[in-house]
Amino acid sequence: MNKLLKYTLIFIVLVIFAASSIVLLTPGVNVPWQQITGTADTDEETVKRQLSVTQGFGVTLFADDVPNARWLAVTHNGDVLVSQPRQGQVSLLQKDANGDGRADGQRVLIDGLRRPHGLLLHEDWLYIAESDAIGRVPFDHSDGRLAGSYQRIIEGLDDSGNHWTKTIGLGPDGWIYLSSGSSCNVCEEENPRRATIMRFKPEGGEPEIFASGLRNSVGFDWSPVDGALYATDNGRDWLGDGFPPDELNQVRQGGFYGWPYANGNLVADPDFGVGAGPETQKKIAESIAPAHGFQAHNAPLGIHFLESPSQPASHRHAALVALHGSWNREQKDGYKVVSLHWDDKGNIRERDFLWGFLGEDRETVYGRPVAFTEDTSGNIYISDDYAGAVYRVRYGEPDGSGPLPGPDSRSELQALPKPQSIDSGAAQRGEAIYQRFGCAGCHGVQLPLTNLASKYSLQQLANYFDTPTPPMPTYDFSAAQKRALAHYLMSLEQDAEKTAPLN
């Protein structure tokens, strides 16, 4: 073999090895590299041709140059923040002030981070969940710029192996919740923080484990109706095309949700549950079954309960879930957004909301939805890490460009919600918020809260906290906190009516 041919072969082998090593050594990557980084380009024509949305809504392309777009957050000014883990940065997409349906501009807000994923805006802080830490930086909503230096408030989070992304969200109790997926497909973790949802105080400190046995709960959100925490969860791989189902769990403090010993509706895992000893069998028996099952390997990621009063009654308080799409099955499935609807008995019905990311041939992939954010006007933003895009969905004209319907609409879908009965659990959480922020200092004597039920529904009162009338400050309450506070304030009025003397 001549030297030229020899060195050529060596070079080819090294290139192949290097490429495979990137996949093998990158935490969480166990699928072809192009499936993770995204190879699909998209444009307005592709969106119009390919994507369909449920009746009454329209979808447009808000931004199409956002590689590896993952988690989203919306500012008070209407700008959209998006994390880009593989770029190590968070970008800002300027709101559509000129009305053409597209972001008016785009810039990197902060970079040099270690695989940033989860985002949270709270009390003039931007919180960022890196793969191994949580940091925060002062944020000015008026001009969308950082107002200070970035500081890590929690460090030492494990990001080895698979499922290294971290997601954060503000709970109705004022704690910040943090999800951390498993380091493997199926195993008994050495680090007790893996495969859990944790929580910590906004100023930082040691996170405490809130719930465990959650293999990879990338997305979670609180129901605006009863304040319950719901989280998506990705089931394990290599048990066939149809098993196990991916999950939606109602997450309770101290709850154990089965992984790695059980899958789906408490079915013993063939590797870690079947034939296991009594201690493991006890864990399986006491684990909490899913509230809802998705198709196997559909990879549910972001979940968001719709809050804006501009949403139609058919979808208000429904939860959107991004099915990122399968890789571990013979025929691709998922690749869409679904909506979950609860009936009066707590049963959940799943409907398609946004689809067309998977071609009719069931092979061509146009995009993979990831996460959501919603502004106070009812615009829903959806990220796509495969196409590197952010879409805007809104209720109104078929193409999504028309005006959002106002409160004067007479259609059945746009009827304003009737006042709802007070939820005692939510009211109790609202009372804690009321006390923690010293609301009684003003409203106890100087500005008594009266006749709220005649002015607001529960949802309208919750929305009021977004832009309160001065001198009341803006507190950046989460949706669940606003809802809890509304229940508490309405309950005060009901209690007053019960104890009022008869004339």
Automatic annotation (TrEMBL):
Record keywords: Heme, Iron, Membrane, Metal-binding, Transmembrane, Transmembrane helix
Residue ranges of every copy of the Cytochrome c domain listed in the record: 425-493
PROSITE patterns: CYTC
InterPro entries: 6-blade_b-propeller_TolB-like (IPR011042), Beta-prop_PDH (IPR054539), Cyt_c-like_dom (IPR009056), Cyt_c-like_dom_sf (IPR036909), Quinoprot_gluc/sorb_DH_b-prop (IPR011041)
Keyword Ligase assigned: no
Transmembrane segments: 7-25
Classification via PANTHER family: LARGE, MULTIFUNCTIONAL SECRETED PROTEIN (PTHR33546:SF1), LARGE, MULTIFUNCTIONAL SECRETED PROTEIN-RELATED (PTHR33546)
Name of the protein this chain belongs to: Cytochrome c domain-containing protein
